[in-house]
Each structure stands twice: as C-alpha cells, then as structure tokens.
Write a structure and sequence with these properties.
12 helices, mainly alpha, globular, three-stranded antiparallel beta sheet, Globin-like
C-alpha cells in the first residue's frame, strides 16, 4: 500500500512537516514523486519510519538515528530486538510509578506512613520520561546529550521542596505571561517579570544559565509547533510575546 505525506503522517501520529523535514535531511526519502508533485511512500518507507519513531521514543537524537539506520551494517531485526529490550526497561519504570501510586492509595486508606522520597520518586521519573518523549529529540539535537542528561539528573535529585517550587513557578510564569500579554508590551513591567520567572523556572532544570541559551529556547517555543501550541493555547501569539520579552530581558534584542 502507498501513502501520501498527509496519510502517512496521520497513520504514524506525526506531522506532515516532520516527514518533509525527514526527506530534506535524507533520513526518510519517499519511494517516488507522483505526476502531481506529491511525495509517495511505500512499505519500505513505512518500516523505516517505524524504526525512526522507535529510536525517538527511546530518546536517541535524530542525527544518531540517521547514522544508525543508514549504516550498511544496519540489521532491522536486531534493531527490533534492541527496541524490545528498551521498551521492557520503560515498562519497568511505569510499573515503578504504578507501584508508587498503589503505595500512596494504601497509605491513605490504612494510614501507613510513606516516605516523602517514595511519594515523589515516581513523579520525577515520569516527568523526565514525558519530557524526553515530547521534546527529547529537539532538545538533544540543539543542546547535546551531556546537557540534557545533566538536566535530567538535576531533576532526579530534587528535594520535595524544590519539586513544589518548580510546580508553583511554572503556574506563576503562565499566569504572569497571560496578564502581560494583555498589555501588549514585552518591555513592560509584567512582561519582564514573566521573563525573570521563566529564567528562575529554567534554572531548576539547567546545570548553568546563560542568556544565549535562554533566548535560544524561547525561539524554539516559536519555531516548534508543539511548544507554540502549548503557550498559544489560551492566547494566540503568546509564544512570540514571551520570546520578545526574554530578548529584552537578556539584552539580546537586536
């Protein structure tokens, strides 16, 4: 069976833009281009996309994935076996989270004492997993594996108080940003407060803060449709407003 970009994207749960980008960088070329100029994908391309998405799910960056699956020595069956092993590891992590919830339920029902560490360990692991699944590929490609791994380790080692603070800060960033957006002035007091809160929030994740990295990540909020959708959900244009506010806050506005 053959698929157009739109049909394959819908079936695989990715965007058409993603498939076109994969074509541009040479990791997933269409089988052919039809007379109307549309990309057409066949079974081999579907199988390759499956491999790409498996590696993405496991947090492997796009460049490394391309090197792996385009290698002359790439063995699809062996890769599937490796994917299975990694997925089993992920299942163990999910079971840890389920066990964490079960313990919490039991502790509430029977007044059993549960340590703070037990309460939050599962949540932190799940947060890291979700971030890797949603944004790991882009973040690792932009900042490198070492920086992302340090960020994940920092989150794993968070205290209960730090975990509460980062959640509170995230909510405050959004509330302040929405209020600032209504003013229409990214240089205004509220907008600059939102930019500062955003810096403080990022600092919980980052090993060290730089103005360049701060401006780079807010630009990604604008460029990446998933980030943009998150910030623009209530007020379209909010992602660009935050970027402009941060550019002013950091003094990086040209």
């Amino acid at each position: 069976m053959e698929y157009t970009v739109q049909k394959l994207a819908q079936m695989a749960g990715v965007t058409s833009r993603t498939l076109r980008y994969y074509d541009e960088i040479g990791i997933l070329k269409p089988a052919r281009i039809n007379s109307s100029g549309y990309r057409i994908y066949g079974q081999n391309e579907v199988d390759r996309l499956q491999q790409i998405l498996f590696y993405r799910e496991l947090g492997v960056n796009l460049e490394s994935t391309k090197n792996i699956i385009t290698s002359p020595t790439f063995d699809e069956l062996e890769a599937l076996r490796e994917h299975r092993e990694k997925l089993l590891e992920k299942r163990e992590q999910l079971e840890l989270l389920i066990d964490n919830v079960d313990k919490t339920i039991v502790s509430k029902e029977r007044s059993i004492i549960m340590s703070d560490k037990e309460k939050f360990e599962g949540f932190k692991n799940k947060l890291i997993e979700d971030n890797e699944k949603k944004y790991g590929e882009e973040i690792r490609e932009k900042y490198g594996d070492e920086a992302v791994n340090k960020s994940n380790n920092k989150l794993k080692n968070m205290t209960q108080e730090e975990y509460y603070e980062i959640t509170r800060l995230e909510n405050e960033v959004i509330e302040t940003l929405h209020a600032a957006f209504e003013t229409g002035d990214p240089a205004g007091e509220l907008a600059q407060k939102a930019a500062d809160l955003h810096r403080r929030w990022l600092s919980f994740y980052w090993d060290s803060y730089t103005k360049e990295a701060h401006t780079g990540i807010v630009q990604m909020y604008v460029d990446d449709e998933r980030f943009r959708a998150y910030y623009d959900k209530k007020q379209p244009g909010t992602a660009e407003f935050l970027r402009d506010a941060v550019l002013i806050y950091t003094g990086m506005k040209k």
